Amino acid sequence: MEIQLWREILEPYQQAVDELVVKFNHIKQEYHNEGMYCPIVQVDGRVKKISSILEKCQRKNVQISQLEEKIEDIAGIRLICQFVEDINTVVELIRKRSDMVVKQEKDYISKSKPSGYRSYHMIVYYVVQTLSGPKQLEAEIQIRTLAMNFWSTIEHSLQYKYKEHMPEELRSRLLRAANAVDALDGEMASVRDEIMNAQNSNHLKASVVSDILNNIENLYHIANKREVVKIQDEFYRIYQSDDMQLLMRFNKELDILAETYRAQSLG
Ligand code: 0O2
Questions:
Q1: Which residues are catalytic?
Q2: What is the mean pLDDT of residues 250-258?
Q3: Which H or E run contains 121?
Q4: Which of 53, 86, 209, 218 lies in disulfide reach of 39, CB 3.0 to 4.6 Å?
């Protein structure tokens, strides 16, 4: 097969990965803009390396001419969540989308693989627009927690090193580590609400502070400078009191003040 042909085959997959990464990052952004807890912490994407495609074709006895129909993870997306519960939210989110049609789901969380691997996989149909028209292809979306991801990254590199000759001792250590990851996810789930509340209030505070500073900057251009300095001092005083209600009320007052100045400048 010519190198040019590989490029031709893989280019739409690269496009799919690029588009999907953008889309999932926008989902994150939407959650943040709404001041809501986001179930996704990290979005990664990759097109499978030619050497891995060849290795998989060989392992699964797939003809190169059939690889697009038989290899489902040429385009791969990985969505990392903080908590196991978040995985269900992300799965639901994907099921509801009209631009990704679910072909298959593999739940290696309820039942892990013999290696100890845990993750939720979704194979989706996705359409990219190319110069020669729309092309439907398949992409694999792996959804897992930070802890599961840590384990599988380490295990994957060891698998790569040993292939099918991983020493038994190492294999059972990895299984023990997988159980520890499972227990860790369980422990973290029990403090999820506490952590979510803390993160939400951090996000909310950051967003209110950013709004206030924007307002102060805008006022600086249109209002009396001495008044703006007073407002800024007041902001620092309230900020130090660490009272969220006061901070939000102060922000509302600044909104009204900025609106009044804007109306005056128009009139
Ligand atoms: P790579 O290098 O990550 O692309 P199978 O027949 O079970 O071997 P299949 O049918 O493609 O594989 O589907 P499956 O089981 O859902 O696996 C798809 C991908 O999940 C794998 O792709 C890995 O990325 C990941 N995976 C599956 N099992 C394991 C495991 O035991 N350990 C780790 N670390 N990852 C796993 P590739 O093509 O095998 O590898």
A1: 140
A2: 92
A3: strand 120-130
A4: 86
Compute the distance between CA of residue 97 and CA of residue 66 in angstroms, rounded to an integer. 28
Q: The tokens of 138 are what? A: 């398949």
Query: What's the 161 CA to ligand 1 centre distance in angstroms?
Result: 15
Distances (CA, A) of 68 to 33, 55, 138, 173, 211: 38, 14, 8, 36, 49
Report yes or no: 120 and 142 within 8 Å, Cβ to Cβ. Answer: yes
SS3 98: coil
> Please, which contacts does 70-73 make with residues 24 or more away whose CB atoms are closer than 8 Å?
72/103, 72/104, 72/123, 72/138, 72/140, 73/48, 73/123, 73/139, 73/140
For the chain, give the mean pLDDT. 92
**pLDDT value at residue 3:** 59
Return the exposure string of 181-217: e unless at least 16 CB atoms fall within 10 Å of the residue's CB, then b: bbebbeebbeeeeeebeeeeeebeeeebeebbeebbe
User: Which phi and psi angles does 135 have, rounded to 5°?
Assistant: -130, 125
- The model's pTM: 0.83
Which pLDDT score, from 0 to 100, does residue 1 have? 58
Residue with tokens 């967003």: 207
The pLDDT tens digits of the residues spanning 123-146 come to 999 999 999 999 999 999 999 999
C-alpha–C-alpha distance, residues 5 and 104, integer Å: 28
Residue nearest to atom 26 of ligand 1 (CA): 117
* Residues at CB less than 6 angstroms from ligand 1: 48, 52, 56, 73, 106, 113, 115, 117, 121, 152, 155-156
